[in-house]
């Protein structure tokens, strides 16, 4: 089993800052308020020739009646049992708290694996105060400042000393699929259903997911990277802070993915915000599968629902529509089959002669409108690339192609090129 190094501690002691410092990039959302991290994050890293999977967990509160906090606690407990090394993180700013003492009791059975990391030691005066943490009863204690990098190398040396030299890997090869949509439409529930485990924290409370979570996944020898994202609300409703950075991560996930699951709530139908998110997908020329979740609560017959979705999301006319009930696990194989269909078209490549014949056939069917009284011509065309398929048109008036005609042209081109389930990007160039 691969080395796993798990960072745990109460909320707001700097676990995510330490995680980001060790992996060398800003993967976890960091904010100076408690409870920002909820789902645990993983990253592969290495020190002194020892590879390990570093895990950032949510803030641990032993006694809680809050649904989300309780689920965070249970996830942390599972990770502690799997850990090769546990980095118990505390903050010198507040000293030893009752929650720190409770966590210490939880960790005593695993004390051989524990390194106590006293964080936020930013001055000699604070270093003096840090010595009180030896009373928690752990042999290995490191004083550090995750923000400034002080003491982090000492921590890594201690971690490496406890690890075996065994292979560790997180295979992020495969089709990158991001789940996007409004808050509380069931994105995390769908991912859990696919993974067949409670990997992500799910709650009826909107905004549960805050980080962008990437998880490798295999289905019938097809490799995927599933990406859960925070719900995207209208910009006017997003306050600067945790949600602002979370939404930015969701937008980044759209940029870095190949296929998007646009998840909509079957009980509510297509909303204005669903259309806005769909527009983001269209403008970035991404593959898309429209996932109608909670279809058991949909008041419309299936055919009527499909017709309405196609009408409201007409600009995603290339996207297959699938129906799911995440809580029952229904429709999951349909989602993955649709992804494979979309990805096949998203990566389809045609010879120049074939593209030219298709383009000329469309022009004969319906020529572009004249531009400033002159005929718009296409001298030559070819496919330039994939993801999405990009077709270059050498024309006399690149600026003369009207949007309405472009929509018609792309629709016909998809049909003739057999690219039914992927957008096509047109690139116009002058002959010279």
Write the layout of secondary structure elements.
Blueprint: E1 4-8, H1 15-23, E2 41-47, E3 50-56, H2 67-82, E4 85-91, H3 98-107, E5 114-119, H4 124-130, E6 141-143, H5 152-162, E7 175-181, H6 187-195, E8 213-219, E9 222-228, H7 242-256, E10 259-265, H8 272-283, E11 287-293, H9 302-312, E12 321-323, H10 332-346, H11 352-365, E13 378-385, E14 390-395, H12 403-417, E15 425-430
Parallel strand pairs: 1-3, 1-4, 4-5, 5-6, 7-9, 7-10, 10-11, 11-12, 14-15
Antiparallel strand pairs: 2-3, 8-9, 13-14
Helix pairs in contact: 11-12
Entry keywords:
432 residues, alpha/beta, Rossmann fold, GMP Synthetase, Chain A, domain 3, 3 domains, 6-stranded mixed beta sheet, 15 strands, 33% helix
Question: How is this structure best described in words?
Answer:
By secondary structure, the chain is α/β, with parallel strands linked by helices. The chain has three domains: 4-162, 3-Layer(aba) Sandwich (Rossmann fold); 175-346, Rossmann fold; 352-430, GMP Synthetase, Chain A, domain 3 (2-Layer Sandwich), CATH 3.30.300.20. Helices cover 33% and strands 22% of the residues. It has helices spanning 15-23, 67-82, 98-107, 124-130, 152-162, 187-195, 242-256, 272-283, 302-312, 332-346, 352-365, 403-417, and strands at residues 4-8, 41-47, 50-56, 85-91, 114-119, 141-143, 175-181, 213-219, 222-228, 259-265, 287-293, 321-323, 378-385, 390-395, 425-430. It has a six-stranded mixed β-sheet, with helices on both faces. It has a six-stranded mixed β-sheet with strand order 8-9-7-10-11-12, sandwiched between helices. A three-stranded mixed β-sheet has the order 13-14-15, covered by helices on one side. Helix 12 links the parallel strand 14 (390-395) and strand 15. The radius of gyration is 26 Å and the shape is elongated. Residues 28-38, 205-210 and 238-245 have low confidence and may be disordered.
């Amino acid at each position: 089993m691969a080395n796993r190094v798990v960072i745990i501690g109460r909320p707001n002691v700097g676990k995510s800052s330490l995680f980001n410092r060790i992996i060398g990039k800003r993967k976890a959302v960091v904010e100076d308020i408690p409870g920002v991290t909820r789902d645990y994050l993983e990253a592969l890293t290495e020190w002194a020739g020892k590879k390990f999977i570093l895990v950032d967990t949510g803030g641990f509160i032993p006694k809680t009646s809050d649904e989300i906090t309780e689920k965070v606690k249970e996830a942390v407990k599972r990770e502690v049992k799997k850990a090769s090394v546990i980095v118990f993180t505390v903050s010198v700013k507040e000293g030893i708290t009752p929650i720190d003492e409770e966590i210490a009791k939880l960790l005593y059975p695993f004390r051989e694996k524990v390194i106590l990391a006293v964080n936020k030691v930013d001055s000699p005066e604070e270093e003096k105060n840090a010595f009180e943490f030896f009373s928690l009863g752990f042999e290995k204690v490191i004083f550090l400042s995750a923000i400034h990098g002080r003491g982090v190398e000492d921590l890594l040396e201690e971690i490496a000393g406890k690890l075996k030299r065994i292979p560790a890997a997180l295979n992020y090869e495969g089709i990158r699929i991001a789940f996007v949509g409004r808050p509380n439409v069931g994105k995390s529930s769908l991912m859990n259903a696919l993974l067949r485990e409670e990997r992500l924290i799910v709650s009826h409370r909107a905004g549960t997911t805050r980080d962008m979570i990437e998880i490798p996944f295999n289905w019938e020898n097809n490799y995927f990277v599933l990406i859960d994202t925070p719900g995207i609300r209208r910009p006017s409703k997003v306050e600067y802070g945790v949600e602002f950075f979370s939404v930015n991560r969701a937008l980044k996930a759209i940029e870095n993915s190949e296929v998007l699951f646009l998840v909509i709530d079957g009980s509510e139908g297509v909303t204005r915000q669903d259309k806005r998110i769909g527009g983001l997908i269209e403008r970035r020329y991404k593959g898309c599968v429209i996932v109608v979740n909670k279809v058991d609560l949909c008041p419309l017959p299936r055919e009527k629902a499909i017709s309405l979705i196609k009408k409201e999301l007409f600009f995603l006319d290339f996207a297959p529509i699938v129906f799911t009930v995440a809580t029952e696990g229904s429709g999951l194989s349909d989602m993955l089959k649709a992804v494979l269909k979309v990805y096949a078209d998203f990566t389809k490549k045609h010879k120049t002669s074939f593209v030219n014949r298709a383009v000329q056939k469309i022009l004969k069917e319906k020529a572009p409108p004249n531009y400033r009284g002159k005929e718009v011509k296409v001298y030559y065309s070819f496919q330039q690339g994939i993801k999405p398929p990009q077709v270059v048109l050498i024309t006399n008036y690149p600026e003369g192609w009207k949007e309405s005609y472009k929509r018609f042209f792309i629709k016909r081109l998809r049909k003739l090129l057999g690219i039914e389930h992927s957008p096509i990007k047109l690139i116009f160039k002058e002959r010279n």
